Amino acid sequence: MSSRLIAGALLLIVVTGAACNQNTRASAEAPKPVAPPRPVRVVPATQESVPRTVIVSGTLAAEEQVVLGVKVAGRLSELAVDLGTRVKKGQIVARIDPGDYRLRVEQAVAALQQARARLGLKPDGADDRVDVEQTALVRQARAVLDEAKLTRERSDRLWEQSLIARSQVDAAVAALQVAEGRYQDAIEEVRNRQAVLAQRRSELEIARQQLADTALVSPIDGAVGQRQAAVGEYLAPGAPVATLVRVHPLRLRVAVPERDAATVQVGQPVRLTVEGDATQHTGRVARLSPAIQEQNRTLTIEAEIPNERGVLRPGSFARATIVTLAAQAVVMVPASAIVTFAGIEKVITVQDGKSVERRVQTGRKDGARVEIVSGLAAGEPVVVEPGNLVGGVTVQVTR
Question: Facing residues of 55 across strands?
Fold first, then answer.
């Protein structure tokens, strides 16, 4: 009985195992479902001629900024400008009360005329040249000297003839020495008067210059950036009256990264925009710093920006593009075709109906397009907006 049970159990196991093997083979032989091709939109990479540029930001600065100060002391009697006033070179900006300085000029003129009169010159003449021997003082001393010489000669002849005493000869000798001294003193006095005349002439020029300095004149074309005095205020020499700013042209100061410094040269065109104004302004690189700054590894450059209408203001923040190369052939693709993962950039291309990943190196971005520096040739198709698409997937190109 037990033997029959064992034999039945073994038979059941064998039958069950056979059935399982048949089911397994049937499952293995059944075809797997095939995923439909994924639709993708592709565009060809294009080769374009675009300028090579360096994008930087900086600050606009005035070409010149001058603090106008008075040269002479006095009360401010006139101030013809205010904040924002446009001025031209040579225009009178302010004026110190000239009354005291006119009196000083008149005083200097009188002193000059007096000095000319002491030399025998016409008071109102302009020629200060003097013949020393022809001045009254020297001619008088010369006449006394000549008379003393004649007296000495007569005394010597009379002494030789024993007609006068020795004391008379000695008196004649002494008189001659005194006359010679007076003659020399007369010449020195005339030269002293000539020096006084030159001094009075210089004092007159100084007085006239001080009178002219009562008018404060603009040395540049520009605009008033700050007014620092008021009419009626007493000002000491050097006191500031107004600050003038030259706004045409302006200087754009920017720092170029060291990696781009070698490509920037004097004369290259510059395009810039400022905050709050979408208008694009142009200029040119004018100056380059001779050294790279060690702190931030940048090169300081200055560009001149025309500003004839005065729409740009010094101190404004500006974004600038320096055109370092006029035209260069580059490969461009849509920015939406770039896939970035873990710092690696790539694009998805299509080959034989399947997606293929291509690692690329990108360059500049121009709006909705990106430059491909390496990894992709012009004309190769790239998938636009690939999303989570990876390589090896069957795709169907759609329009």
Answer: 321
The values of phi and psi at residue 249, to 5°, are -80, 170
Q: Decide: pTM greater than 0.85.
A: no
Q: How far is CA 307 from CA 112, 222, 279, in A?
A: 51, 11, 13
Which alpha helices (H) appear in the chain, and where do they start and end?
A: 2-29, 99-117, 136-160, 166-212, 258-261
Residue labelled with tokens 């040739």: 377
Question: What residues does 275 pair with on adjacent strands?
Answer: none
* Predicted confidence (pLDDT) at residue 397 exceeds the cutoff of 60: yes
Q: Strands 269-274 and 361-366, how do they pair?
A: unpaired
Instruction: Write the Ramachandran bin of 380: left for phi over 0, alpha for psi from -120 to 50, otherwise beta.
Output: beta
DSSP symbol at 352: T
CA pseudo-torsion sign 166, 167, 168, 173: positive
Which of 245, 249, 241, 242 minimizes the C-alpha distance to 222? 245
Neighbours of 219 (CB within 10 A): 14
Q: 3-state DSSP call for residue 234?
A: strand
> Hey, is 275 helix, strand or coil?
coil
Backbone angles phi, psi at 237, to 5 degrees: -55, 130
C-alpha span between 186 and 279 (Å, rounded): 81
Can you give the length of the chain in residues? 399
Instruction: Name 392's Cβ contacts closer than 8 Å, sequence gap at least 6.
Output: 354, 355, 356
Instruction: Write out pLDDT tens, residues 305-315.
Output: 998 888 888 88
Burial of 262 from C-beta contacts in 10 A (0-12 / 13-18 / 19+): exposed
